[in-house]
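re: that chain from earlier
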Amino acid sequence: MQAPRSHPTRKQLPASRWRQRRQAQAPSGLSAAQQRQLATLHDISTLLAGQHAIDELCRSFLRHVMAFAQAQGGTVRILDPHNDTVHIIVHEGISEAMIEEEHCIHKNDCLCGAAVTQGVIQFRDFRRTDPQQHFRCEDEGFRAVAVFPISVREQVIGSFSLHYAQPQAISVQQHGWLETLGQSLGIAIENQRLIAREKEFAVARERSLLAEGLHDSIAQSLNFISLQVQMLDDSVRRGELGEAAEVLPLMRMGVEQSYQDVRELLVNFRTRWHGSDLEGKLDEVLEKFALQTGVQGTLHMAGAGAPLAPEQQLQVMFIVQEALSNIRKHAQASTVEVRVDNGRDFSLQVRDNGAGFATHLRDKKTEVQIGLRIMQERAERLGAQFSIASAQGSGTTISLALPEAKRQAA
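^ sequence. v structure.
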């Protein structure tokens, strides 16, 4: 008995062969041209479901749509609502002279502007238009043009045009498909805009945290140095060289503290990695911390859960680095312990045996509390619970608990 034959999946076949396979499996009543159109519609749907830069998305969309509609030229225009203008984002089969003239037009101008303003399909067969009415497309040798709105949530955000060297009838079914594709493109563009805003917001948050760290740690150190310089200046003016000699070590300490803070912030800010070796990265951080401070750290890893997503791992690393920075500057600790339990849930603890502090003071704007607040904000980004256990003379424990529901797949 022969084993059943396996059928190749989409990933096992080249695009051309997969398209031929789909066409061969299409209903037998469809013509070859209709089968090609269905295959092209499938390709467009796949394109719009992916993540692409907006210009790349529009260019690929236009090429597919031109092939679907058998057009010889085309444009995609996006509305600028602040200036009531529409701008050509991408174009195919159109001369640079025409693009130079029409790269930016008022939303009420020409057919492309009308499609945006009225939100309806515009179609012109230039053989049947008023001779007094002239369109720039005619100078390009086109004999017909169809313009479809690009919309999202019933709001028009642009248009795409199809230009024909010879008048061509577009069926009611094709009109419906092209109108639907305009709506799908609008949704895809809006999604990319939301993704871009999210990335921009993340960058702004990261810069805000860096700026806060610079202001709240380094600014304090520089203020301390400034006071010491004034004391040194006063001592020298009075001829009290003994006092001056006492101030110099304090100044040296302040300069060294500022140097360490700047170096630490720059290292943390540059930290970017896309692997899944959290244990290796934590080992590296603890090793650098030991070289910097002389305080040895130990790492305990438990659990066999899946790795966190790179962005979540990065936030965990930032929290550990901020915790170690607080320990270096304030704890006077001799040991540091980092514990990670990566099961279905994820948990992290950073514990030191240092001086500790009264947790009821943590809302006051001191340098140590600022570090704790930065860690709290990073935990909120993860969707994790953040807690602090500390008492004066008893060390401090920073805890992070990320439930399974908030974990992202790597």
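The chain has eleven helices and eleven strands.
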